Amino acid sequence: MNVMVPRPAARDLLSNGGCEHMSAPKTVKGQGLWSEGLGKRNYLLDLSFIGPVFIIYTLLFIYPFLQGLYYSVTSWNGIDPKPTFIGFRNFIEMFSRDEYFVSSLNRTFFIAFINVFFTNVLAMLFALALTSRFRLNNLWRAAIFMPNVISMVVSGFIWKFMFTEIAENMAEITGIEAINQSWLGDPSIVAYSIVIVSVWWGLGYIMTIYIAGLQGIDSSIVEAADIDGCNPWQLFFRIKLPSMLPVVTIGVFLNVSGSLKIFDTIYSLTGGGPGKASEVAMLNIYREAFVYGRLGYGNAKAVVLTVIIIAITIVQMKLTSGKER
User: 236, CA 20 to 30 Å: which among 50, 183, 272, 315?
Assistant: First the structure.
């Protein structure tokens, strides 16, 4: 198991040759204190804790996923008592004739990329500001986190009113015509309107995670860097960011998976419009299964989206975990 190298004192850091040679503490391979007792664990006790959770997880996640795999190779409208097995015809149709699904996937990736970038960058900036000597820290933290308490559906309706009514009034008051746009009716900017709402809603949650990561950094290392003459850029990129990479991994992972599964906000904000300009993969799957009555085909699309999310998550975890070492 990995054990942390003992933290150096400030004077030891200063003797290493200056800020240019400073870095966050690393992990080394070693034998942990608990390795000798691994064979003595009470597995029945472990099973009593893990068993109920595993049963619930199996019933609510694993079984529905396996059931979705089965329906993905059938033709079923959700009403007939027995689905008709059709093999891989759903998947062939999906990528050969269903241009709307492919375009919805591309739109999902575009919105997710912009959302993840701005949410994590702004969350880190706010976390850095609100862990420094900033007046009314707790008030600002609560204000930024507050949108995350609101459901995504309600957030969509709030911003729908703001884009259609408040924006026009603000343009009249301030004289800034750029505000008075057709935020939800112009296909060229509707995706950016969705990103604005998504960033507003998710920023506080990711910021809270990063604040926890920054507060977990050993203060003696930061103090030593200050004494050694590190400027704020060096302090962040050489000390703070490497020390909280595991926390950044969690924040990015949650944001990526949530962005690829976005549905509630778009459903209440635009309904996929104008036309299909804001229809993402989840909304396309919903319409296919519950509006058009093709649950087998909708499940096939859901399986493809699930595989894509798993693949992206694995790649992201591999990239970030490699840097953590």
Answer: 315
